[in-house]
Amino acid sequence: MSNITNGQLVPAATAAAADGPEWVSEPTAYDAILLAGFGGPEGQDDVIPFLRNVTRGRGIPEERLEEVAHHYRHFGGVSPINQHNRELKVALEEELARREIDLPVLWGNRNWDPYLSDVVRDAADQGYTKLIAIATSAYSSYSSCRQYREDFAMALDDTGLAETVQIDKVRQFFDHPGFVQPFIDGVRDALLAARAANDGLDLGSEVQVLFSTHSIPSSDAAKSGPASRGFDDDGAYAAQHRAVAEVVMAAASAALELDSSTTVPWQLVFQSRSGPPSMPWLEPDINDAIHALKGGPTRAVVIVPLGFVSDHMEVMWDLDNEALESCDEEGFWATRTPTPGIDPVYVTGLVDLVLERRDGVPAVDRPHLTDLGPWYDVCRPGCCENVRLGFKPAVSGLIP
């Protein structure tokens, strides 16, 4: 990938971002938006090839892939994630048209068709050489941010377009109001439903709100976010989730006009662990957390998929299947709140994030709901290292 740097501090960046400012304050005339998804199989024959793509280079045995394949085969071998991104693309296009913003939306995946390399090549063929990317992940970690940036770099290298196409990326949007508001609405509605379904329910003691996100290796968590921010051993990844959960609970409680002495119990939990037992991952697992509530005052459980932007496979299987089964086993009334999906507030927020970069909006004028934000436009050096793989070329951040 010798051509990816072009002698810049930030590889393949537009002029406004090339020197690596924390927040870009110079307007940039982008040609198109690149919506970057994870990708997923769309039929039974796609499942194993897709899982091989996802786990390439990790030495995962075929028998383990078959275990995971069972989740997809349960739904006919079709992951909902591609359809969700098709719908999000259309929603973004409609919002851009409503606001009379002339920016086409391109969609590419990391692990399945349409692949990012093909989309970048098609973009260049159409004369789109300045792209602003939206990755469908809100938080900071290797898998949710840096790996996307590495895949952008790989796409430029694979296509030979590293000196032609520039790719910037919107900031991580974990605390942007457009992302957070759907969760506030979901928790508010779920608490109302819990109270209606459980006579005499005490929201201050008999409900447990579980904010769930994808577990990651502890070593990756520790490296998430820039070291200069001084996060604890769980890094920016866990800190961002906890900060957003606090905002959601405060806003939902205010919407319900709860007495100031009533604090609804909540905790951050994790799901979808895939590593060997010998490797520490973030805990507690959501099912363990549910079973641990047995024998206490809990009567109702509200599950909030805080780490996810849409109802993809790990929401449908790990939460709607396994976690709700665990609640049923313990006799808890339970519900799972919606993900942002194509909620108009979320879609509007994504367009606002693009306009921040197009217009060079100063950091002081950027909306954020926690003290951790607004997050950086250009990732800091060494941010979100994968300890096992080391640093690979990546765009939208300072080297390495």
Automatic annotation (TrEMBL):
Positions contributing to Fe-coproporphyrin III binding: 79, 148
Pfam families with a match to the protein in the record: Ferrochelatase
Record keywords: Cytoplasm, Heme biosynthesis, Iron, Lyase, Metal-binding, Porphyrin biosynthesis
InterPro entries: Ferrochelatase, Ferrochelatase_C, Ferrochelatase_N
Record: residues binding Fe(2+): 214, 314
SUPFAM superfamilies: Chelatase
The keyword Zinc-finger appears for this protein: no
Catalytic activities: Fe-coproporphyrin III + 2 H(+) = coproporphyrin III + Fe(2+)
Domain of life: Bacteria
Subcellular compartments: Cytoplasm
Catalytic class of the enzyme: lyase
EC number(s) reported in the record: 4.99.1.9
Pathway connected to this protein: Porphyrin-containing compound metabolism; protoheme biosynthesis
Known role: Involved in coproporphyrin-dependent heme b biosynthesis. Catalyzes the insertion of ferrous iron into coproporphyrin III to form Fe-coproporphyrin III.
Protein name, entry field: Coproporphyrin III ferrochelatase
Organism listed in the record: Frondihabitans sucicola
Source lineage: Bacteria, Bacillati, Actinomycetota, Actinomycetes, Micrococcales
